[in-house]
Amino acid sequence: MILKEIQRKLCNxxxxxxxxxxxxxxxxxxxxxxxxxxxxxxxxxxxxxxxxMIEKIITIESRRLNGEPISxxxxxxxxxxxxxxxxxxxxxxxxxTELIVEIxxxxxxKNEVKNILDLGTGSxxxxxxxxxxxxxxxxxxxDLSKEAIxxxxxxxxxxxxxxxxxxxxxxxxxxxxxxxxxxVSNPPYIASEDIKKLSKSVKIYDPILSLDGGDDGLNxxxxxxxxxxxxxxxxxxxxxxxxxxxxxxxxxxxKKNDFKxxxxxxxxxxxxxxxxxx
Length: 278
Fold this sequence. Notes:
With 278 residues, the chain is an alpha/beta fold. Helices cover 40% and strands 19% of the residues. It has 11 helices and 9 strands. The longest helix has 15 residues, at 51-65. 36% of the residues are buried.
């Protein structure tokens, strides 16, 4: 079978079951298995694919058709100009979370920031993306999952950011005693009852620890806000991701803990996505 036919078949099969990005997923599979690039997929569309390679493609296709995300199959995901190692022990980085990195970089450009704290760091994608753009700053990423911390350390080494970054297993800020100029976080914010409504690719292949925000989805914000003042400098900025319908509740939680809202940011779909506080 030639390359063009395999690509068409993959696209059709993915489309049939409602996968949102059938063409993209098909291209990624073919590029990974056959060691091709985007140009090859066009210029070599008549390439005859060996049977053993077709078998590998079919195996991966079956996993994708069963709901496993492409990123979890190949154990990597692109996020803010870098490729991160991921696993089932960390949340799959989402494009909307890149907004946190943009806000942080803009803030750092205009203010003196010596260090950053990332709460619930997961793969380390937020912290490491910021540090990569700001080589004079150091950062600490904390996570309750030792497996996640292991992945974050691998990404730090991969991106040559080991001298700028440290990672620590900690239940939120319980093991943190230093003061930070900038705090970033994408905490769990899905209500426990809503977990079962999530797509199969999320509820099965992302860790529940990174998703479940308690009965109302707001537990993480309460825990963070209640202990945050202890570990931040006087004018520190807090940048935090929220669920699309949580802005009023999260703002209220932080106000009750003596924080003021600086700005609310929308994602590309116009939904509330990130809040900043001081």
